[in-house]
Write a structure and sequence with these properties.
By secondary structure, this protein is α+β, with helices and mostly antiparallel strands. The chain has 3 helices and 6 strands, in the order H-E-E-E-E-H-E-E-H. Strands 2-3-4-1-5-6 form a 6-stranded antiparallel beta sheet. The protein starts with a helix and ends with a helix.
Length: 96
């Protein structure tokens, strides 16, 4: 009976797990986008054109995550990390 209750609780909680905030970046130079998945700080990045999205990853400030992505993929025109969108000033600092 406990196993059945546990399974029901996990199924009820599944939608909450599925709604992880988005992590995404738009690259300034689409030619720098990797053709295959790329792991950066534990996040699995995939790109279509200049738009890249990620799942997973280490828990860190959005500005640090941005700098790590820029170091590997090049400058970004927008960046959102786990639901936190960077401002224009933060993106400029990230790209510097």
């Amino acid at each position: 009976m406990r196993v059945l209750l546990l399974a029901a609780a996990l199924l009820a909680a599944a939608p909450a797990f599925a709604q992880t905030p988005a992590t995404s970046a738009v690259l300034v130079d689409a030619a720098r986008a990797p053709a295959a998945r790329t792991i950066i700080d534990g996040a699995s990045w995939s790109c279509t054109g200049a738009t890249c999205t990620a799942t997973g990853g280490a828990n860190q400030p959005a500005t640090r995550a941005c700098r790590r992505v820029v170091a590997r993929l090049g400058a970004v025109s927008s960046f959102s990390y786990k639901g936190v969108a960077l401002s224009a000033e933060q993106i400029a600092a990230c790209n510097a």
